[in-house]
Amino acid sequence: MPQPLFRRPSLLTGLLTESRRHTMLEPTLRPDSLVLYKNRPARITQLSDKKLDIQTDLGETVSVRPKDVTLLHPGPLRSLSELKSPNGEVIAAWELLAGETTTLTELAELAFDAYTPATAWAVQQLLADGLYFSGALDAITVHTAERVATIQATRAAKAAEEQAWQSFLVRMQSGCHAPEDERYLGDVVALALQQREQSRVLRALGREETPQNAHALLLATGYWAAAFNPYPLRLQAPLAAPELPLPALPDETRRDLTHLAAFAIDDEGARDPDDAISWDGERLWVHVADVAALVAPDDPVDQEARTRGVNLYLPEGMVSMLPPEATDQLGLGLSPVSPALSFGMKLTPAGEVIDVCIEPSWVRVTRISYEEAEDRLTETLFAQLYLLAQRFAARRQAAGAIDISLPETKIRVDDERVTIRPLPALRSRDLVREAMLMTGVAVAQYAQAHGLAIPYSVQDPPEELLDLSNGALSAMFAQRKLLKPGQPKAEPAPHAGLGLPHYVQATSPLRRYGDLLVHQQLRAHLQGKSAMDGGTLFARLTEASAGVSVSRRTERLSNNHWRLVYLQQQQVWQGEAVVVDKNGARNTVLIPELELETEIYGRPDLMLDDLITVQVSEVNLPTLETRFRVMK
User: Fold this and answer.
1) Quick one: the chain helix, strand, coil %, rounded to 5?
2) pTM (two decimals)
3) Residue 267 to residue 278: CA distance in whole angstroms
4) Do 36 and 42 form a contact (C-beta atoms < 8 A)?
5) pLDDT score, position 268
6) Contact 579, 608 (CB under 8 A)
7) β-bridge mates for residue 630, sequence order
8) CA distance linking residue 506 with residue 523, whole number of Å
9) In 3D, which of 519, 548, 547 has the Cα closest to residue 532?
10) Rounded to whole angstroms, how far apart are CA atoms 234 and 218?
11) Tell me: the pLDDT tens digits for 14-24?
């Protein structure tokens, strides 16, 4: 609290008494009066009927309306330079008047011994400051000591906060952060995750307020490590499996197929085995996890799965659309005997699927990897299965199937360390793919034979078919761009890319909600119950498509993110690339080892399918951009 400055208390008291007897005359605007204009002092130079000319402290002459100014002193004021700060006893005047109301004239006389243009402007500045006084010129509120103390404390806190803010900005510019910066960085994080559109921090640093710039700042200051993947949060993808109870498996009749050797063939480390294959000497059997036995239409688990639409597969882990208990109970090969919905079918010598049967079953499944299955293709059972697959594939090829074979990789993250493993082109993968496609044809035939509403997967043929016979990556790349998107339809129609007259996705109900819908339809029919009509079915499929879109985009962006993190972790990465497209001096190259497409500029001499060596020269995580230079 400031110390009082009482030098002449008797004079102050006398002035107070005298000033309160004084009656202010009606304010009159005239030349050389001091007025307030836009919170700055001004002097009236000339009056007219409706306007007055004023000179501002900036040296400008402005024509304004009388209502645009406030009279501070009638003058005469010959020059604004006369408004020098007067000596006075402001604290003494405040203490004398604390808690009361006064006027500009009275306060000027008490604090500065006179009411002059200079003292009137000094009082106006005290009002603008707001520490001791506030209010209108003719009704000035004199703050109490408690109010002054509160204002001073608030100002001190504000000054400390401003100092902390400026120190924070210095740290941001120098590329570091402190623990206390958490509160400021919140808006940067929110912008980086696309949870808001603005950031005070980026604005103060003079940077464009974009998620990429926010991401870059968080990386540059070490607040986020390069290994932080923002895309699941940015796209609001589910980050954990649903925690919902499942009923017990119903007590119902199931066909015992445990005598058949059944194999669930998948990638090493796969956690959701939902299909397996068998051969009984006449029929190919594809066993699929009987998810619809536990998940009925419109129960809470079904509704949650519909919202998610699909399992989310990220390099750092998988998030399932169903509760983990569903996989525990239904995953094939996770228990000695598993419940399944088994699809039996025969294949003609021409590769046509016939004699389809679908039955709930018990199966005994062995889980093996693609690599293990590849090593067993000479065994009688696996050789027979592969022969069936070849026969069916030949029929598809004859029907115009488009076989695009581009490099694939598996990205995995363990303790923030990234590994990228190219997936070899194995015959065992072909075997499993063809078995699943046969099942899709079998389900389509069954649905048509029994009048079941079902989502058929349909794809129109491309406008142009390229020659892919030589296996050139450039041709594969070009043909992929020409493919039309597949889409679900209520009526059966060809799937041109697969070379199938009709096809239904039905072998992954643990992973895809659309497959679960198919199983719910089949199960209702097998039990003699009413299945969903086409309108209901497609309304649910449409609802699920939103979640599918989020998951697929999250997977794509996350995979790209981890590829770039991998390149950073390698420090200097070098490898082979193939030119797959050209546009003048711009070359699109595919790096098989990374399953990465990028652009190479300034090399018009490169030809399609040229094999070149490239080295990474720049990695930009926020924009997901990489640059490579050609080494040879």
Assistant:
1) 40, 25, 40
2) 0.85
3) 19
4) yes
5) 86
6) yes
7) 614
8) 12
9) 519
10) 15
11) 444 444 434 33
Q: What is the DSSP letter of 198?
A: -
Instruction: Please give the helix or strand (H or E) that residue 263 lies within, else none.
Output: strand 262-266
Q: Which two tokens stand for residue 499?
A: 């070379």
- How far apart, in whole angstroms, are the C-alpha atoms of residue 149 and residue 142? 13
How far is 45 from 328, CA to CA, in rounded Å? 91
Q: For the purposes of burial, counting CB atoms within 10 Å of the CB of 507, is it exposed (0-12), middle (13-18) or buried (19 or more)?
A: buried
Helix/strand/coil for 258: coil
Q: What is the spatial distance between Cα 148 and Cα 137, in angstroms, rounded to a whole number?
A: 19
Question: Which of 590, 493, 621, 513 has the alpha carbon at shortest distance from 227?
Answer: 621
Tokens standing for residue 58 = 């900036």
Query: Hey, what are 125's tokens?
Result: 């500045």
Q: In what order do the strands lie in the sheet with 139-142?
A: 101-102, 139-142, 133-136
Q: Name the amino acid, one letter, at 470.
A: N
| Secondary structure of residue 169 in the 3-state scheme | helix
DSSP annotation of 247 reads P
> CA-CA distances (angstroms) from residue 116 to 89, 138, 319?
15, 16, 78
26: confidence class by pLDDT, cuts 50, 70, 90: very low
Asked whether residue 241 carries a pLDDT value surpassing 50, the answer given is yes
Amino acid at the residue 434: E
Question: Nearest to residue 193, comparing CAs of 239, 235, 234, 238?
Answer: 234
Residue pair 290/252 in contact (Cβ under 8 Å)? The answer is: no
DSSP label of 494: -
Grouping H, G, I as helix, E, B as strand and the rest as coil, residue 581 is strand
Q: Which pLDDT tens digit goes with each residue over 390-408?
A: 999 999 999 999 999 999 9
pLDDT for res 27: 60
Please answer whether residues 4 and 46 qualify as being in contact, where contact means their C-beta atoms are separated by less than 8 angstroms.
Answer: no
Q: For residues 238 and 312, give the distance between their C-alpha atoms in angstroms, rounded to a whole number.
A: 8
